[in-house]
Amino acid sequence: MVSLVRPAEIGDAAAIARVHVATWRTAYRGQLPDDFLDSLSEARYEERWERTIADQGSGVYVAEDAHEVVAFASGGRERAGEIGFAGELYAIYVMRESQGRGHGRALVRAVTAGLRKMGLTEMIVWVLRDNFPARRFYERLGGTYVREQPITIGSALLQEVSYGWRSLDSITY
């Protein structure tokens, strides 16, 4: 299946927020405290995504299936000073029922095209260490393990790992 991916518009913020909250609740149940996941607010995420899209400091993209947003991704300049990676895939989330249909790969293509327009030639992504489906996705794309670090989300202290591509041309879609 070919995924319809396009740059996000302000009007997509509510749909992105819906996907964001729903995917966090399914992907991270058992890894993050239930009270934290249950407290996630689509309204707060909608405001955040409206600001992010309006800011234009990063690229935000949505994937549609039957004219409904089922996935999104964002990326831009690397944020933490990681040596050797000027670009970063900030977020990519696909509704569970829409996974395995090419949306993720199409969104990575869109993000990398945006990074190229910014003059960036490499990319890093951070993922929770225990999120094995996401880790396998990045490994299939040719991502190389970079390092691990602690991260606090809500009241949970977790580990996250990074995968990197020293050249956007090395991504294996």
What's the gyration radius in Å?
15 Å
What is the end-to-end distance? Answer: 14 Å
- Topology order in helix (H) and strand (E) letters: EHHHEEEHEHEE
Q: Please name the fourth-level CATH homologous superfamily of the domain at 4-123.
A: Gcn5-related N-acetyltransferase (GNAT)
| Biggest sheet, spatial arrangement of strands | 1-2-3-4-5-7-6
CATH topology-level fold name of the domain at 4-123: Aminopeptidase
Give average pLDDT, whole number: 96
| CATH C-level class of the domain at 4-123 | Alpha Beta
In total, how many beta strands? 7
Helix content: 25-40%
Low-confidence stretches: none
General description of the model:
This protein is α+β, with helices and mostly antiparallel strands and 173 residues long. The protein has a domain at 4-123: Aminopeptidase (3-Layer(aba) Sandwich), CATH 3.40.630. Helix content is 34%, strand content 32%. The protein has helices at residues 13-27, 34-39, 42-55, 103-117, 132-140, and strands at residues 4-7, 59-65, 68-77, 87-94, 123-128, 144-153, 156-165. Strands 1-2-3-4-5-7-6 form a seven-stranded mixed β-sheet, with helices on both faces. Helix 1 crosses helix 3. The radius of gyration is 15 Å and the shape is globular. The chain starts with a strand and ends in an 8-residue tail after the last strand. The model has no long low-confidence stretch (mean pLDDT 96).
Summarize the model shown.
By secondary structure, this protein is an alpha+beta fold.
Which key phrases capture this entry?
single chain; 173 residues; alpha+beta; Aminopeptidase; 34% helix; globular
